[in-house]
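Changelog note: in this version the structure field was regenerated for every chain. One regenerated record is shown below for reference.
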Amino acid sequence: MSEQGYDAVVIGAGVIGNAVTCELARRGWRVVGVDRNPGAGQGSTSSSSAIVRFTYSTRAGVAMSYEGLQYWLNWPAHIGNCDEAGYSTFTKCGMLTLISGDGPHLLPVPHFDALGVPYEVWDRDEAAARLGHFDLSQFGPPRQIADPDFWAEPTSQLDGALWTPEAGYVGDPQLAAHNLRLAAEAAGAEFRFGETVVGIAGSGRAEGVVLADGDVLAAPVVVNVAGPHSSAINELAGVLDDMTVSTRPQRKEVYHVPSPAGVDFERVGAAMADDDCGCYVRPEVGNNILIGSLELDMTDLEWLTADEVDDCSQDLTREQWETHVLRFARRMPDLGLPHQPRGVVGVYDVTDDWIPIYDRTSLDGFYVAIGTSGNQFKNAAVAGHCMAELIGAVEAGHDHDADPVVVTGKHTGFDIDMGTFSRNRDLHGSSMSVLG
């Protein structure tokens, strides 16, 4: 058994964990990142759809995501000249949110107005004129393929679409995590891969972590960014009873389907959120369409226990493949259903309201950046900045619970109220879906 001393230990080397490690290291902290996987971004980051959008239900969420866009637009400058593998790239394709009644599409609009985020609202006629490959009938609510009403004929039309032209996606999320790892190392950080945290050292405050091989990484600050393992780490720290918002792991499937003949979706397609059909899509390399679920149909959800996270099946489920692809095929009638399912399976870390927790905890020195899966990849760099600012303030004596830290975006100047992401927030106002 050996003991090594640091200023901070960051548990998790996904895209957000590495962003936290990088930001702390750039502030002069001696930091070590620990991950049970053999390399950076090989957990839930690798299965991220990596859509960069601004359609969040809270002002802080919109401000954070638009600030996050500025990092992607200047990614090489943020990372520095340190990665021979190249830089992860951002593709601007715009984002459509189809409008149906008084749905979640309304939640971000007041925040767009307040912050000056560009958007357009298309009425039914304009949406139909612009979206010629789509049937804008109202097919919802989302149903499973076994439901006898799955193929029911529509009787009405959608109301239009919300368009945010600056949105897009990052094509290689794992490379983004790798970029951040090397940027962190260039700032002096260390990493321990293939290591499992089995204990939180200290009594009364965090004093480091205990690894499975018996090594102790001593530090007065520990940050839990462990993705789908975050709840188990919180249990080790004894902080679960203090949190009114919980996280739990969810198995998630995302599908890749060829574009219809004659449609260059990779070049002209946009990201899209479709509450009516219960899916989201974006262009994918090879002129494919990536299709995921918006979690509106509760029968879609596959929750895991902590013991099941590492052993869940990586095979696509035929029924879910057919359900989700055919839901979108109703919207895009020429799509069809390929014979062979293709896609990725991952495990997400999800909060009760799909809004992440960026916070301190009841254990002094123990911080969390959790519940981020499915909707926070785009915010990785700014989340690292915000967590470093919050940690620095609390360690200097600021009472974040009584007076939440407000972080100013370096690029936009937007104020980001970190109280929005409190572990003890009220659960209201969210879309209650992966849209956040």
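Spot check on this record: The CA atoms of residues 202 and 208 lie 7 Å apart. The mean pLDDT is 94.
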